[in-house]
Amino acid sequence: MFRFAGVEPSRAAILVVKSSAHFRADFTSIAQTLLVCAAPGSMLMDAAKQPWTRLRPGIRMAPCGPVFSGRPATA
Question: Of 31, 25, 4, 6, which Cα lies nearest the Cα of 16?
Answer without folding.
Answer: 31
